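Lab meeting tomorrow. Please check the following:
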Amino acid sequence: MASRAAVILDVDGTLVDSNDAHARAWVDAFAEAGIAVAFDNVRRAIGMGGDKLMPQVSGIEEASDLGARISTRRGDIFKRRYLHGLEPFPRTRDLVERFKADGFVLAVASSAQEDELDPLLERAGVADLLPRRTSSDDAEHSKPDPDIVRAAIEEAGCASARTIMLGDTAYDVAAARRAGIQIVAVECGGWTREALAGAVAVYRDPADLLEHYGESPFGRR
């Protein structure tokens, strides 16, 4: 009998349409601190952890006093201004249910902070289907470093050769490949097919993946 296979799931931009909201929360938090950052630059960095995003878009280290204040304020702004308006991508729950029906062990590998992850999964409509979760709090280094993905693989308890990730950014692709697993990508997070090079397959969104599930890397397992 073949060993069980796993699917490692990113959340933001993959299951729930939240990447723009995260970027706006960062821009708002920087602005409150008197620092102007370009939305497009921040948006391009969504998918990294704050430890990498902050110095990239502003030159400020998250570990500094100012960086810590901005990061904390961003979390408050995101939860109060933006979280309640988020929606899952079409057929997100149907896709996760298909993974479960096919016997995949499911685990989450998200750059979100732990206190944001549960509400994001609730907004995605899949919190009850995904008990195994790893967040930025479970990793020393955020994506595109592989720490979060490796933690999710360990949580799933399946061999790397039997594990596929689903993500939406070039940072997900890099993290999965560095962790030694394949990744399927979706474009709904705002990255183009070309920018997601390195993924074994690319689909528009969860609905498109579900429509072509049989011939996808998941359906061929």
